[in-house]
Amino acid sequence: NRLAGQSVSLVNKVRQLLTGILEQAVEDECIIKNPARKLNMPKTTEGSYRSITEHEREHILKVAEWHRGGLWVLTMLYTGCRPKETRYLNWADVDFKNGRLFIDGTKSDAAKRRVPLPPELLDRFRQEFKKAKTTFIFHQKKDETKPHTETSMRRMWENFKRELDISMGAKVYNNKIILSVVAHDLVPYCMRHTYATDCQTAGVPINIAKVLMGHSDIKTTGDIY
Length: 225
Hints:
Blueprint: H1 8-27, H2 54-64, H3 70-79, H4 83-86, E1 94-95, E2 100-104, E3 112-116, H5 119-131, H6 150-167, E4 171-173, E5 176-179, H7 189-201, H8 206-213, H9 218-224
Antiparallel strand pairs: 1-2, 2-3, 4-5
Helix pairs in contact: 2-3, 2-6, 3-7, 8-9
């Protein structure tokens, strides 16, 4: 049930693995019959991106409280930023007075937009701004004067996902994860997709969500809604 909302391929793999384990238990006469044969599949998603599950959200928020990539992940989750759009966000893009973030998207004219900042994210921005040593909100770890490259951002995500895995119950031995529990299809873009579905849940009209997401075609927003 915790896999509800994740990709159909992942859920099928987990079901197959579980069924195989219990089939072996039947053969070894540990149990009389395999209870996994008639399991109802949870609701799944198709495609490359998906929304995060509530279980994932709980642990993402927990890890984001202390991880250096936490503010970055929360920015995508609470503003719908594309991962690429976060690379060049400047402190000048944050309107602290009115609680807005200017996203200078380059994908299309519609990608340039201003989105509201929820109080919890605005507070985090204020805290980080006081300590800022560069104009970039998100920067490389070794050189704070440089924005992230695709490689450095990917490494930050991999480290965040590792800590998320441990938070969710992964087994660790000698500081290495020997049994992962985090979904393989959990990627940064899932935060943006979740923003869209959160807008829908909150009752945001689709034409407004189109603007907030920076979509040039409302059909794209509609496909997510």
